[in-house]
Design a protein that fits this description.
Number of domains of chain A: 2
Helix content of chain A: over 70%
Radius of gyration of chain A: 19 Å
Oligomer: homotetramer
Structural class of chain A: mainly alpha
Largest sheet of chain A: none
Strand content of chain A: under 5%
CATH class of the largest domain in chain A: Mainly Alpha
CATH superfamily of the largest domain in chain A: Tetracycline Repressor, domain 2
DNA sequence: TATGAATGAGACTTCATTCAT
DNA sequence: AATGAATGAAGTCTCATTCAT
């Protein structure tokens, strides 16, 4: 893909995200998207093979951004517990920022009966966090009797789902910081080596 | 609603669940549903105001079944850790049994931009498990420094999401029993009073 | 099919024939047809599964009319040579009357890569004429050394194609009656028992 | 047209014939053709003014090939009945070889509502065969009471349509040789001077 | 209460053609 | 002469919903 065509791809993707976030996937027509992107109807199909192919593209885009942010705020020098705290906070932040996109990814991936794709898209993030956990085990910050793969995914899902319940499900049983603190404590009690 | 009309309501709902589970919400037409239910096109609208009104009805139906099963397997005499084990197992079982319905609830609720409804539908289940936790605190089986509401939801979501990743996301990093065991241990380490 | 729905089927078919005859198959949209038939867009699809399904229906309709006319003008008392003369004349008449429909059948069946259907549709007409020939053999009006099936089809095609060249191909190397006479003589010389 | 541009014209035409033969005229896009020809989208329009202009070009190409073959197999020394036999056989051969192209010519010419063009394209072939017939009359091989023009066309159409019914319509009431023999006999009985 | 034919808006997608490079 | 990205009109078909019976 040339630089110019990549630009157009991004332009379409951005327009799609914006429109679909507002109106929902099913209520958005290609016509809406191209109008918003300022291109012709047919041009859309030069960059995406179909309407439904937008969803994985959007999901991918979302995780890329999220993951970038994680890597940005977390330093290699941070202890595991600092990392955890930062990851929780960042998860809440990105969930708030991108809640509409998250919703459409849920619906989209569900629509396409392709929940498996989540796993593929999440792979780099899982891997990154797995390494943090392995390091923490090595540094004896956390116990070594866990299944690292499973625990990684449990933690990430715990953070994400709680944040989603808070921002998307509008579940407000406590303040945001208390939510974050409660997750942190829950995990710390479970994994701490001391 | 008379008994007879309730029967027809159920007949339509069952047909809807079956067809939508197979084909997905968007690919299912009212025509498909009424054919499967053996009624006329117009009759559908005597029982449901619209196609989209099926989704909350189905979600409600799903939670009702799940919750019934929970209450059935769990005895009041069970210790909290027995309860937890049973609840985890039952969650995995129902997730496997109803994975198609779960998917359609995800997509459906997302479609309707009404994730909040989940919370309402889940209310009775949350409440029931909250009581179990409060009892466990009282019996000094688990620590008393937690936020009960938040912890309840975290646990339930932890179980459900892991089960969904396993059965729907086809994530198979370990055997099913190991998944269940890992969740159990994770929670136990975090909450156990000893 | 009830009487009323049969009426609507015919109404659509007539509208389709008329519009497609004028504009050609490819240049005709369903929208044109339903407008001409005075029905709603969707109604079309209650009676025909697709646009292309019109073609066999039209072809069938055409042959039905043609065949009816043949049976009407030809009497059981007619000698074979009278029958032949009448069939040639009728072929020319119907070709002139329905030349637009004939064109669309050609294009349509060709488009659908389903030339074989012609044979099926023509079956009753072929059969009827075959019997005439068999009778003529029995009555020793024509020779008995021919392959009846093949000869039947050759004769019918000879008549039809010549008529089509005359009316559709606008080939006017002679007067219409001369064309008819030439076909008649050609066949008579070939088959006459004397 | 320079030699080089003629080559490219042919390349496009060949590609068009091949692709349209496979997929049918309507299902073939210019995009398919240029891909197959290995040229750019816009280049097509340097050699053909429009998609539909391909059809007469293809038809012309088809008849050129067919006619070349006829002239090749038929010798000036052949008696009329030898010529007839050879022409019938060749007609069957080319019909088999080019059945897809024939179909597309039918549909194409019909699409364009320009059946008359057939006559123009066929002109040289008609003329050639007419001369054969005139010669046969002169040599008293066949009777002289026929209309040469009309009879020529009847014979050619008889051969072609029978071959088309056999190879395209998949009408198999007898073996191929029997079909050819039956046509031959039919014509011979009709025209033979003895 | 039940029916099911009719509606008609609107969606996705294709593709012949153009034109700036 | 050649390219190929962009255009945007147009087409087929679906389907939730209505309403006369």
């Amino acid at each position: 893909m040339t630089k110019k065509s990549e630009e157009k791809y991004d332009k379409i993707l951005q327009a799609a995200i914006q429109v679909i976030s507002e109106k929902g996937y099913e209520n958005t027509s290609i016509s809406d998207i191209v109008k918003s992107a300022g291109i012709a109807q047919g041009t859309f199909y030069l960059y995406f093979p179909s309407k439904s192919s937008l969803i994985p593209a959007i999901a991918d885009h979302l995780l890329t951004i999220t993951f970038e942010k994680m890597k940005l705020v977390v330093s290699d020098q941070d202890s595991f517990w600092i990392v955890l705290e930062k990851v929780i906070r960042t998860t809440f932040e990105t969930t708030e920022d991108f809640k509409d996109i998250i919703i459409l990814c849920y619906s989209g991936l569900a629509i396409e009966h392709s929940m498996e794709k989540w796993e593929i898209i999440y792979q780099p993030f899982y891997q990154w966090f797995e390494e943090k956990i392995n390091l923490a085990i090595k540094h004896q910050e956390i116990i070594d009797t866990i299944d690292v793969k499973l625990t990684t995914k449990m933690i990430i899902n715990l953070m994400e789902n709680t944040a989603e319940r808070y921002f998307i499900g509008k579940e407000h049983d406590a303040l945001e910081e208390e939510y974050q603190k409660e997750i942190y404590n829950f995990i710390k009690r479970s994994l701490s080596a001391f």
